[in-house]
């Protein structure tokens, strides 16, 4: 199966069953693609994205625990400037999605990072549950960062921020959890 959409600049995949091969074919068939919205899709445990033209990726994960998506890997996206997880506020009872960025040298906007969608590796570094001391690479290209936190631990935020020295804008949302 091959697709050929040479002029597609924006692609939204909404509530579809995906396989990695189908996603790879779709991305390869859209050589001008700049914006990708992945919204409440199922069927794929580890979503890998490589695209020479993509500039923006927005991820909405399914609202229930039945999602099989456990990891989003940005393998090679030299033009990627914005990576957003747009609905991470479903709380820790939902399976977290790990976000791994291997190569995205132009990444400027990253968020919203939270317990709902945990960034496990950015630029092949590891940080889980916002523990900044496990970072090994400083992200000089990120200019805008959005953090969604459960609890009032701003010391952890301050430790975390030292790995983003070129930030121009920071958005922090704090949520409290009733136990």
From TrEMBL:
InterPro entries in UniProt: F-box_dom-containing, LRR_FXL15/At3g58940/PEG3-like
Domain F-box/LRR-repeat protein 15/At3g58940/PEG3-like LRR as annotated: residue spans: 3-172
Family annotation (Pfam families): LRR_At5g56370
Protein name in UniProt: F-box/LRR-repeat protein 15/At3g58940/PEG3-like LRR domain-containing protein
């Amino acid at each position: 199966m091959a697709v050929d959409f040479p002029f597609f600049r924006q692609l939204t995949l909404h509530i579809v069953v995906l396989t990695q091969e189908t996603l790879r074919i779709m991305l390869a068939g859209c050589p001008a693609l700049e914006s990708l919205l992945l919204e409440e899709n199922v069927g794929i445990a580890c979503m890998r994205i490589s695209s020479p033209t993509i500039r923006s990726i927005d991820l909405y994960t399914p609202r229930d625990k039945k999602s099989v998506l456990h990891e989003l890997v940005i393998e090679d996206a030299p033009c990627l400037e914005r990576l957003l997880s747009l609905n991470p506020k479903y709380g820790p009872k939902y399976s977290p999605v790990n976000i791994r960025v291997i190569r995205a040298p132009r990444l400027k906007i990253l968020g919203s990072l939270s317990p709902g969608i945990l960034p496990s590796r950015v630029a092949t570094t590891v940080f889980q549950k916002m523990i900044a001391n496990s970072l090994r690479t400083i992200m000089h290209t990120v200019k805008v960062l959005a953090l969604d936190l459960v609890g009032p631990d701003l010391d952890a935020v301050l430790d975390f921020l030292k790995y983003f020295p070129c930030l121009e804008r920071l958005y922090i949302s704090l949520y409290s959890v009733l136990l």
